[in-house]
């Protein structure tokens, strides 16, 4: 009887683990496919939301291919954001520009994310000519893996 109950609980735990794995809930990258994911832009080294968060559209798009995650997100007031880089192998690298909409003043950027559970270091520069404002910021992107949702074609 105890052996049978242990077997049932083990099987149930395995099923729950197998069902949650594709959605990133248990820390692994989701299965290959297209998803959306919520995120926050944080002040460097904190859990406090950065002002940069206000200049991004939520959720981001997530594409997983061969276990590798690639995120695309939209920047608002993109003419003010003169640089957006993410850390790759210890160095900051410009994000890929996927598209630009000058009429809406938006820009879609993309970058690989090696670990969706870890904060991703990023660097951005902002220049607002009308205010003669020039700022340089270290920020971090924190992805909400529990929010990963498959995109249905």
Automatic annotation (TrEMBL):
Cross-referenced InterPro entries: IsdA, NEAT_dom, NEAT_dom_sf
Keyword Hydrolase found: no
UniProt keywords, alphabetically: Cell wall, Peptidoglycan-anchor, Secreted, Signal
Leader peptide range in chain numbering: 1-28
Main location: secreted
PROSITE patterns according to UniProt: NEAT
Location in the cell: Secreted, Cell wall
Domain NEAT: 30-151
Annotated membrane topology: Peptidoglycan-anchor
SMART domains recorded: NEAT
Keyword Signal part of the UniProt annotation: yes
Pfam families assigned: NEAT
Listed PANTHER family: IRON-REGULATED SURFACE DETERMINANT PROTEIN C
Annotated protein name in UniProt: NEAT domain-containing protein
């Amino acid at each position: 009887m105890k052996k049978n109950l242990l077997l049932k609980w083990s099987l149930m735990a395995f099923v729950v683990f197998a069902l949650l794995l594709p959605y990133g809930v248990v820390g692994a990258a989701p299965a290959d496919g297209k998803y959306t994911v919520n995120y926050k832009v944080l002040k460097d080294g904190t859990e406090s939301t950065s002002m940069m968060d206000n200049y991004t559209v939520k959720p981001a798009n997530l594409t997983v291919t061969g276990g590798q995650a690639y995120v695309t997100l939209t920047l608002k007031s993109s003419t003010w954001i003169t640089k957006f880089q993410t850390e790759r192998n210890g160095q900051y690298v410009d994000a890929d520009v996927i598209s630009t909409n000058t009429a809406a003043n938006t820009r879609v950027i993309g970058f690989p994310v090696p670990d969706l559970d870890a904060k991703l270091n990023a660097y951005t520069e902002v220049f607002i000519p009308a205010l003669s404002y020039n700022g340089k910021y270290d920020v971090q992107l924190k992805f909400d893996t529990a929010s990963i949702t498959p995109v249905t074609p």
